[in-house]
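Task 17 of the worksheet. Students: predict the tertiary structure of the chain below and write it out as structure tokens. Keep your answer in the requested format; marks are given for formatting as well as content.
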Amino acid sequence: MTYLKISDSLKNILVPKLNEIFQKRKYNFEINHRHNNRFIQLNTILNNDSDVHYEYYQGFVELHLEGKYSSYDYNDVWRTLVDESRKHNNLSWHRWSERNQGRCRYAKHVESPEDIIEGFEYLSNIFDPILKDIDDNTNEDRGNVTETLPLADLMKVNELTTSIVQIKNLPFNNFVIPEYQRPYKWTVKNVNQLINDLLAFRKNKEYRLGTLVLNDNNIVDGQQRIVTLSLILHVLFSKQDISQKSPYQEVQDKVNTFWKRTKFKNEHSIAHVRENLTAIKERIEDLDSKFLDFLLQNCQFVMVQLPKVSEAFQFFDSQNARGKDLEPHDLLKAFHLREINTFSENDSSNITYWQGQNSNHLVNLFLTLYRIKKWSKNNSGREFTKSDIDVFKGISLGDKRYPFYMQQLICHYFSHRYSNDITRNIDGSNMEFPFQLDQTCINGSRFFDMIRHYNKLYNHVTNCEHYKVYDSESNSASAYKIIDKLNKYPNRNRKGDMYVRQLFNSLLMYYIDRYGYEEINKITRKIFKYVYALRLAHFSIQLSTIDNKATMGRMFKAIRDSQSPYDIINLSIQFLPKEQNARNADNIIQELYY
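Model answer:
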């Protein structure tokens, strides 16, 4: 987009007008004669405070909040300005770099000097009165109030101590986030997930939020959760119905003291605090007095106090590392175990089965399931991390009965009743839940049923012997023969070959999940030619190569949208001529392909 450049000639036009309209108001022209694309700043009614100002930059006039206005202390100022801006359809808030929404843009695109003046006038008419009121109130408060924080009690111990502590008994007023701590990094997604988990388990008598490691008053491990819980409690205590009736005044005072003591200097921490506070306020209808009771009385931390900071770090390392961090599937296991109120014989069997699986195998299984779920919707699915585990969380049986839940719930209850009916002792038949990779997961017992089901399918997909029943001597490219060769050819362990095989396995598994082994020979050949053309054509295959092929290609979409196997069999795919093969193309793959 082209926009009005800043130059000496533009400055000569604007200066007289700025002096006339904004008398005694400070302004600043930043002109770069090499690029001619810098900025013009005009102070607000707070003339001596340049941290808040109006600015023309790259085609638009905006209100900018910088410096101290990015801190948590000034969140109310930002909030007030945002609330006012919502009354005007031609104003919008925007981020810059990784900072919070610190600039409010006037939508009119600048094409002339007059447009700049108009933008400055428009924004100043809206925001100057608000800024003046805020400044007057702040000065009045500063003149009348002098507050001295009480001294923190030194939480010092002579030896390692551990205890289970309810949230209401946590000494928020004594907590200190030391300088050596990393920034506060939790995002809106993390906050919403914590709230969702708390809501999901609010009927539990106890809910463990993790381990809090302390040295004296310093938080060595647990900062992210403590800060987030403090934000949630701050919002809860600010609700009128809670603040008037709450029996937790002592807790409220401790949380207030925590925020008065805690001053983040890192701009990313400040931005996350502000964004997360806003996100919590947007969930305000979910956060009632019963939620507060559950959070303070039923939720707990394991609090570990150590006398020396070196020992605290050693403990932290041993808990969080032990040479290896918790895998995403470990977190999912813990989540879904909490969803099971009463363990059945089947649950015990599933957990025993899970425990018997190699951890690396579970990593690969979950990565494959995650990719299929993402790729089938044309979304990127390169890696499965802790931040992605929501993909395997879904419906809780105690949830509201939304219409789109009903199909899964009907299947759940009917298959459970059918399989547990006494007449099954006569015919020995069993009805497995009709799992589909496209569907939303049912939390708790069904999750473990699902993983057992797909682990079996995952093992079958890669085992050529499972396809032998569909093989014949006359079929030179059957599913059995293709997979047998893919399992044995010498170059199969090259990184690029392994990536391509992962894509092949995912597509084949997605098809079998939908249609079983119907026309499996034709389908396997189709998928092989679709996928392994990549391996033949490219000298080097990266993870991004197969991710792009999966998200931008046709095969996942074709399977997803198909009504029968023949919709896929009849799909036209581009054939790779031999002359386009890379020089490192494998001979066995070429023989199978051509």
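Marker's comment: The chain is about 50% helix and 10% strand. The chain has a mean pLDDT of 86.
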